[in-house]
Every structure is written in C-alpha cells, then in structure tokens.
Amino acid sequence: MKLPLLLSAIITSIILFSCIKHEVIPAPEHKATLKAYFSGNINNSTTEFTENVNGYAGAATQSKIVLPSGQTSSVIYLFEMKSTTPGQNAKIQVGLGSLTWDQANSTGPDLTTFNNFFNSHSSPNYSNNGTSGFYVSYTDNAGVIWSSRDNSIHPKSVNFSSISQESDPNGDYSKFTCTFSCYVYSNAAIPDSMSISNGQVKGWFQR
C-alpha cells in the first residue's frame, strides 16, 4: 500500500472510532433499607404482621399543624403496618410527637433537628394522639379502633432502640425498633379496654 493510501486509511479509522458513541451507564441509585414488622400479645392472643405476608406493608406519614410565620408549627410522626388484602382490616400504628419549628424559616424541621428529636426521645411519655409523646393505635378486624391513653391506670412502658438515620432520593428516615406494653381503649360510646403486651414494631419515621 502506498504511503498516502496508508495515511488515509489510518485517518479514516481514527475518525470512525471517534464517532462511536459510548453508552454511559449511571451509577445505581441508592435506596434506603426499610424493614417493617409487628408482633405482640393483643388481648391474650399472639398477633404478627409481617411485611409482604397477607398484603402487609409499612408506611410512614405525618400529622402537621402549620401556623403562620412567627408562630410555632408542630408535627407528629406516624408509622403504620396495614394490609391491602380485602378482609385483612387489622393494623397497628405508633406515633411520636411533637417536633416544633417556625414556618417562617422552612416548611419543616431540618435533618439535624429531625435526628436529634428521635435520639433524645428513646423513652417518651405516653400522650393522647401523640401530641407530646408516644401513642399506639390498634384497629381490629371488625374496624374498631383501640388507642392508648396518657392517663391509663394500667402499667405502660415504651422504648425506642436501634435508632438510625438513612436517606435516599425519596426522603430522610429515622429507622427504629419500638417495644411497648400498655392498655388500649375503644372509640365506642362506652369504651372497653384490652391489653397489648410485649409489642414490638420495626419501622421508620420520615421527614
């Protein structure tokens, strides 16, 4: 092959190679590891809700009271295990509140405040609806709601452990294991009560 032809072939090869588009594979998106589980002795009957069994799954929500700038807004963090399977109406919910902030500065507590709140409330007091502490609500299969009370005459206990924070593109999470025992009361006109002992919820609160 003559030299000009050889140079032409080399140049053509370089041009063709440089025009090849290389696929850029993005790094895998981090996803928080969130585990949900409940077990306990409810009214002397062992009860378990296991993730992905009978349609059960965990979900974190919030109950906010947002006030105008200059006033204190508050949020109660909630975690619930419930089923999407028809006929599986029983569910458990735990809540912890309330964390306060000024709406003038942000739309909610920042991450540092969020973490500090849970790390400093590992053994909270019971509080109706979680307004200033812990509460638990159990819905039986008939749809009757049973909730803890801060003034219950029966012994009650609660402890949060294994508290850890993790984040992903969908949010910030405070993961926990919550163990508790208490009496819960129905929302009927004449309330009845029953016990939950050795209750354990593994879940998370979300900012």
Helix content: 10-25%
General form: globular
Question: Nearest-angstrom radius of gyration?
Answer: 26 Å
SS strand fraction: over 45%
Instruction: Specify the biggest β-sheet.
Output: 10 strands, antiparallel
The counted number of beta strands is 10
Mean pLDDT: 89
- Helix- and strand-based class? mainly beta
Number of H/I helices: 2
Q: What is the straight-line distance between the termini?
A: 71 Å
Pattern of helices and strands = HEEEEEHEEEEE
Describe the structure.
This protein is mostly beta strands. The chain is built from two helices and ten strands. It has helices spanning 3-19, 111-119; strands at 37-42, 45-50, 56-65, 72-83, 91-102, 134-139, 145-148, 157-168, 171-186, 193-206. Strands 1, 2, 3, 4, 5, 6, 7, 8, 9 and 10 form a ten-stranded antiparallel beta sheet that branches. The protein is globular, with a radius of gyration of 26 Å. The model has no long low-confidence stretch (mean pLDDT 89).
Quickly list its features.
mainly beta, globular, 10 strands, 207 residues
In short:
The protein has about 210 residues and is mainly beta.
Question: Helices and strands in order, then pairings?
Answer:
Layout: H1 3-19, E1 37-42, E2 45-50, E3 56-65, E4 72-83, E5 91-102, H2 111-119, E6 134-139, E7 145-148, E8 157-168, E9 171-186, E10 193-206
Antiparallel strand pairs: 1-2, 1-10, 3-4, 4-5, 5-6, 6-7, 7-9, 8-9, 9-10
